[in-house]
């Protein structure tokens, strides 16, 4: 990694230190505050990440502001060609980035490659910016008058990304912002920045000019600094509801555009006519994949009518999943991100028992030979879950699946619509009529029909809603082009030199 130099951990073991990217240079932070990047399967310290100083943040923003003067005037084709090169470099280096991601985040290697690939799709979309950033024209709206719009970049934009998708989420943000003519300051998660920084290196290699992309690391102080800085025009955030609400309120008060994708409690409804084998596999994969650390994880299964008899079969399917270190072959469920995350998940499992839910499958303290220090929680299944129980009301963000039983589809819809979150939901059925009724009546931003994790491809936009989202426009797709650009409307008339005109004191253009 060219963005890291060697340092010495307290134990005396040399580990890399993660650098900042400011004005095209990977620079060593001058901070006195550092955080360890820890392999969650082994507790090995992989690197040390700096909590950037206010001066370093100011330098990154200043570099982005200076670069904007020329980058905004760079032809669209030239911008697009950088992202064509970038997607090629990501493909060529995918295995390397996936290995870094698995080591620092814990997810399995196949899931890590999926993380990268979903971000790569947005990079490919950014390369198509020429057809996405077009304005509108109305010819001859009045006598010799045309009206047209320009989609112009805003200026310096910023992104704050979470630990659970250190490849996909950064790639949702800076490629589209930069492709539309903005410059960018990225703050990766301080828990797992190594794979993000490798992707940043590749972006620089692809030809993104100095100052157009900058990276600062940090925690609350850096987040607040991005929210407050007067030269930052827009902020994109993905993470917890608590932090997202803070970012939205603080940055909005500072006059910025803000989009915050936040927490969730995603329900999947199963009707008795659902195709059983496919549905069981989907429920287990979407509930326990990535150790449940997805904002789009299917964390609540709503079994309707006779489908409530499927609980034991869900449990049997979940028991077949292998828990272990993400780089080991055949592993389905890796560790959660930290010791604190594991303790919180186990505490919530205990509350499920206290609140009266039935623990069908207990994933606490799974045996993982050779990894006694890992942050492992195995697939856990609760039945008899009801609103008001802490395992239902809170986002667990771990491999815990809650089963709720209802009598009818309308009961399921009412249950979901009463939940404050609106990120995603799904329905498994063979009935087109039931599916249409569900998609029309459900008040959730992203709906899957026989699809457990309905994250749209980049041709569309991520459209979480209600308590899961603050801001009108979602990341990537057509909506994010509007987010990262300002619409300027031009009304123009060119006079015929021989035309005769008179003074007109009305507002009419005729």
TrEMBL record:
GO terms for biological process: L-valine catabolic process; thymine catabolic process. Pfam families: Aldedh. It comes from the Bacteria. Keywords: NAD, Oxidoreductase. Residues 26-490 form the Aldehyde dehydrogenase domain. Belongs to the aldehyde dehydrogenase family. This is methylmalonate-semialdehyde dehydrogenase (CoA acylating). It comes from Amnimonas aquatica. The gene is mmsA.
């Amino acid at each position: 990694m060219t963005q890291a130099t060697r340092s010495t951990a307290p134990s005396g073991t040399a580990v890399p230190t993660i650098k900042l990217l400011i004005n095209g240079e990977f620079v060593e932070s001058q901070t006195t505050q550092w955080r360890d990047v820890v392999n969650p399967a082994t507790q090995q310290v992989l690197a040390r990440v700096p909590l950037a100083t206010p001066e370093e943040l100011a330098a990154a923003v200043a570099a982005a502001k200076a670069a904007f003067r020329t980058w905004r005037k760079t032809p669209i084709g030239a911008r697009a060609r950088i992202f064509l090169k970038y997607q090629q470099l990501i493909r060529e280096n995918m295995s390397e980035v996936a290995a870094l991601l698995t080591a620092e985040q814990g997810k399995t290697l196949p899931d890590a490659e999926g993380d990268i690939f979903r971000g790569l799709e947005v990079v490919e979309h950014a390369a198509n910016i020429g057809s996405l950033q077009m304005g509108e024209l109305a010819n001859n709206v009045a006598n010799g008058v045309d009206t047209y719009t320009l989609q112009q970049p805003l200026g310096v934009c910023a992104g704050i990304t979470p630990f659970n998708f250190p490849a996909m989420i950064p790639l949702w943000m800076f490629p589209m912002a930069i492709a539309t003519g903005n410059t960018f300051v990225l703050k990766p998660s301080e828990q797992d920045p190594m794979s993000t920084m490798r992707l940043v290196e590749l972006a620089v290699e692809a030809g993104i000019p100095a100052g157009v992309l900058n990276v600062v690391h940090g925690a609350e102080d850096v987040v607040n600094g991005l929210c407050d800085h007067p030269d930052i025009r827009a902020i994109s955030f993905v993470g917890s509801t608590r932090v997202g609400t803070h970012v939205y309120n603080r940055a909005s008060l500072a006059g910025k555009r803000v989009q915050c994708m936040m927490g969730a409690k995603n329900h999947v409804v199963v009707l008795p006519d659902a195709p059983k084998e496919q549905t069981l596999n989907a429920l287990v994969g979407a509930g326990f994949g990535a150790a449940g650390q997805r904002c789009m994880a299917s964390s609540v299964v709503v079994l309707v009518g006779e489908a409530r008899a499927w609980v034991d079969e869900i449990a049997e399917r979940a028991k077949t999943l292998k828990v272990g270190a993400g780089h080991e072959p055949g592993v389905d469920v890796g560790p959660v991100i930290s010791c604190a995350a594991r303790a919180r998940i186990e505490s919530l499992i205990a509350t499920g028992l206290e609140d009266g839910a039935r623990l069908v499958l207990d994933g606490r303290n799974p045996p993982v030979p050779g990894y006694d220090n890992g942050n492992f929680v195995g697939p856990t299944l609760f039945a008899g879950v009801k609103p008001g129980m802490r395992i239902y009301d809170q986002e667990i963000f771990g491999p815990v699946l809650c089963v709720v039983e209802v009598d009818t589809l309308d009961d399921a819809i009412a249950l979901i619509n009463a939940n404050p979150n609106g990120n995603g939901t799904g329905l498994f059925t063979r009935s087109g009529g039931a599916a249409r009724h569900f998609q029309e009546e459900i008040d959730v931003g992203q709906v899957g029909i026989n699809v457990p994790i309905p994250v749209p491809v980049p041709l569309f936009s991520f459209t979480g809603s209600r308590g899961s989202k603050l801001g009108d426009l979602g990341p990537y797709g057509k909506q994010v082009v509007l987010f990262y650009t300002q619409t300027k409307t031009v009304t123009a008339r060119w006079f015929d030199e021989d035309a005769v005109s008179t003074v007109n004191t009305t507002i009419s253009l005729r």
